[in-house]
Amino acid sequence: MTAEPRIENRTDSPRVSGLNLAVIGAGPVGLALALKAAQSLPTARVTLFDARPLDKDVSGDPRTLALSLGSVQMLERMGAWNADAAQAILEVHVSQQPPSLAGPLAGWIGEPEVRISAIDEAVPLLGAVLSYGAIVAPLQKAWEAAVAADSQSSRSRLNSRLNSRFGVPVAALKAIDAGVEVDAGIADRFDLAVVAEGGVFSGQVRKAVAHDYRQTAWVGTVALKNAKPGVAFERFTRHGPAALLPLKDGRAALVWCVNSDDDPVATLNEAQRLTVLNTIFHREVGEVTALSPLKQFALGLNAERTLTEGRTVRIGNAAQTLHPVAGQGLNLGLRDAFELIAALAKSNDIDAVLRRLEWQRGPDRWAMIAATDFLARSFTWKLPGAGTARGLGLAALQALGPVKSFVARQMMYGSR
After folding, report:
1. Domains plus CATH for the chain?
2. Residue 389 CB neighbours (<10 A)
3. What are phi and psi of 189, to 5 degrees?
4. Is the pTM above the cut of 0.85?
5. pLDDT tens-digit profile of 251-261?
6. Contact yes or no for 161/151 (Cβ under 8 A)
7. How far is 400 from 403, CA to CA, in rounded Å?
8. What's the longest Cα–Cα distance across the chain?
9. Which residues pair with 253 in a beta bridge?
10. 359-376 per-position pLDDT tens digit
């Protein structure tokens, strides 16, 4: 993993005219921002940096990601969406493992659950599930096509508007007068640098807002018998949340979160894990018949208080790494990217754009940070009745149609 570039302060470089943009990190968020900048800022010069070689094939990366409907629509508009590789999410079913309500409440309300469907929200899908490679490969292909087209229209490399610098790790960023100096072997001056290279919680330098949940996510895929296509399941258990994201061919991606200090999964063999999974999830999941080898990741919150520092902007996991309980980390990063480029397309005043970006993105960022943090911490509470309170919350959300629809819209599009 590439270390996050350090930022130093300098004020000895001259100004240059026009927007010269550096994008650091060619994951889904960085590629989306670079491609959107190429399409929406026709006079800007955009340079994309990444430590991995250009010829490294990322299409087969099997890590599973969930995209909201808003993110799917963004990628479609940019011509970087592979619909054939995606499994649409048509319904989200959230429930809590019994017993979740006590005494007469259980008989009166029943076991609480929340069902959000695309039909009820009058949308074709709530989102989609696909592999990391199936997201990155079309984005990189579209970016490379844009670079090639620009190169053909340019008289020389020095006149090229779009440039790729793969296989070139960025060692440091230096704040200079009205710009940023990017140290990637050779120091280059840019008007604006966007860091979209975040990594995972366990490998990150701690930011201003950080909390280790002492939870572990076990991830892999399962095979399901009699599964309902297109349904994403989230189950609140006493150990933490567990989720199944629908894939093609009767499979689902598993995210199984448990207490790291008393991990009930680590010592189990595959047969035992299958048995436990079949007791955890709602009966509508069907039978879990097979399980891939699982990988584990430490979970925590790691967020910057602000997106901007001088002429450097951090987006995606570089700005906020969240608990996966709501599956919104990538979607939040894509919204960061699109809002930034949309603002730059409307104004030549970079500093004013960055000031506005902070308060424009604030409600969306902090609402999602607060929601995921609250849910993640709630599984560590030892207070009597915590499970009952969570169950009552689910029951109330299901009963209040307009509120449930509001929550669904927030998950699909973020705060607007």
Report:
1. 6-62+132-205+310-374 (3.50.50.60), 64-128+207-300+386-413 (3.30.9.10)
2. 14
3. -100, 135
4. yes
5. 999 999 999 99
6. no
7. 5
8. 78
9. 221, 245
10. 999 999 999 999 999 888
